[in-house]
Amino acid sequence: MTTTAPHRPAPPPVLDVRSFACFVIDGAGRVLLVRRAWPGLWSHAFDGRARPAEPMTQAVARQGREDLGLTLVEPVCVRPASVAARGVYLASVTGRRDPDPARVLAHRWVDPEELGRAVVAAPWALSPALVELVHGLGDGDLPTGDTLGVAG
C-alpha cells in the first residue's frame, strides 16, 4: 500500500556559534593541558558557551576565570564555529599562570610540538576532544607560528 500523506522535511541543523573550546598559551608559547577528575585524561584548558549578547572574547575570558581561576587576555579565534564544529580560541595567561588547584586535578605546560607528538603516540592518554581539536588546527594557528606537527 502506498500513502500520499505529506511529510515534513527534516529541520535544518542548529548552528551553535556560541560554544567554544579554548587553548591557553603562556609567555613561552607553551600550551596548558589540564586533567580533571572526570574522566582523568589530559585535555585542553576548557570549553564554554557565551551568554546571550556576550562578545565571544569576553566569554572566553570569563570562562577562564570561572573554570581555572586564571586571568586571560587577548583571546583569538583560530577556527570559527560551524555546523560541524565549535569555535576554537587561543588565549594568553597573565598574572598567576597556573590554574587554581581546587579546580583541576593536575596541569602541565607543554610545547606545541610535544602536544603534537603525544596526539600521535599516545592518544589514549588524551581526551577525545583534545585529539580532535589538535587534528583540526592547521599551520599558523598558534600565535608563535609553530605548528602542532601532527602526523597522519
Structure overview:
- Strand 2 (31-35) and strand 3 (42-43) form a beta hairpin.
- The chain has helices at 56-68, 112-121, 128-136; strands at residues 19-25, 31-35, 42-43, 46-49, 71-79, 87-94, 106-110.
- 21% of the residues lie in helices and 26% in strands.
- It has a single domain (19-136), classed as Alpha-Beta Complex (Nucleoside Triphosphate Pyrophosphohydrolase), CATH 3.90.79.
- It has a four-stranded mixed β-sheet, covered by helices on one side.
- It is built from three helices and seven strands.
- By secondary structure, the chain is α+β, with helices and mostly antiparallel strands.
- Major β-sheet profile: 4 strands, mixed
Task: Kindly state the percentage of residues in helix.
Answer: 10-25%
CATH superfamily: Nucleoside Triphosphate Pyrophosphohydrolase
Q: Nearest-angstrom radius of gyration? A: 18 Å
Organism: Georgenia thermotolerans
Pfam families: NUDIX (PF00293)
Protein name: NUDIX domain-containing protein
InterPro entries: NUDIX_hydrolase-like_dom_sf, NUDIX_hydrolase_dom
Note the topology.
Blueprint: E1 19-25, E2 31-35, E3 42-43, E4 46-49, H1 56-68, E5 71-79, E6 87-94, E7 106-110, H2 112-121, H3 128-136
Parallel strand pairs: 1-6
Antiparallel strand pairs: 1-4, 2-3, 2-7, 5-6
